[in-house]
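B., you asked whether I could sanity-check this one before it goes into the benchmark set. Here's the sequence:
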Amino acid sequence: MVHRIAVLALDGVTPLDLAIPTQIFTARPETPYEMTLCALDSQVATTAGFALVAAGGLEQVRAADTVIVPGYEPLLRPPEAALGVLAEARDQGRRVVSICTGTFALAAAGVLDGLHATTHWKHIDALERDFPAVKVDRDVLYVDEGDVLTSAGVCCGIDLCLHLVRRDLGAVVANQIARGLVAAPHRDGGQAQYVPAPVAAAGEASLSDTRGWALRRLDEPLTLRVLARHAGVSQRTFMRRFTEETGTTPLQWLLNARLGKARELLETTDHSVDRVARDCGLGTPANLRLHFRRTLGTTPTAYRRTFTR
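And here's what the prediction gave me:
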């Protein structure tokens, strides 16, 4: 079935924020998406000084299954027509999504009242101040509240849009699109890692080599001691630097990586659940089911049934 996506560009739209969903949800043989760029008027001003021509208007937004609002500046209250169509989409149970400062439009429309949401770290204080009914999450790349999703600054829109593809079509299709974009299929941690911070001490190198080494050995017992030994630092130093670089702990990063591998194995092989649990490093089927329930709200068998082609 066709899944109609309306990207609603407001005046002052940020071109990069706009490009992310239009690129990820463009028509492909392996996806059901039909994407339309929409606006209140036929031409939309951008922050880069040029104008865009939109193919659709509010009627296409009303007909969409998913409505995406890219970031825009200055953060003035959008026209009432735009707020009305966003509130209407939410009331009708359609999926409403924002990228970066697009969150402010959703908040102004009342879409985020009582929900968790995020935006670019530079503007997160303003979001919390101006919209007290919104539960602001400061240190995440994106927030998934079911049919309402928001992302942090700019490139976090890639993370969120790939997350939507993963939800709709599974990890394999999301990974294929990510490879085409030369983007990470899934990034762990939060936007706190991008907030200006003190410069690292001289001689401290990235732990990316150790993370790559670990990803090739997810079926092995990877303890904090093993990872620190590979990096050539103490466990305490490894924990501190790992958290600074990724915004999450080594063990949580490993769990997410193992779940990602399990999802891909379930989609692309006919291996038993026992073997998938072993090959992804989660050990037993019971442990695999536990983490699938906690993280994805489903079972490995149900996941395979949904996403196996």
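One thing to flag: The chain has two domains: 3-181, 204-309. Otherwise nothing jumped out at me.
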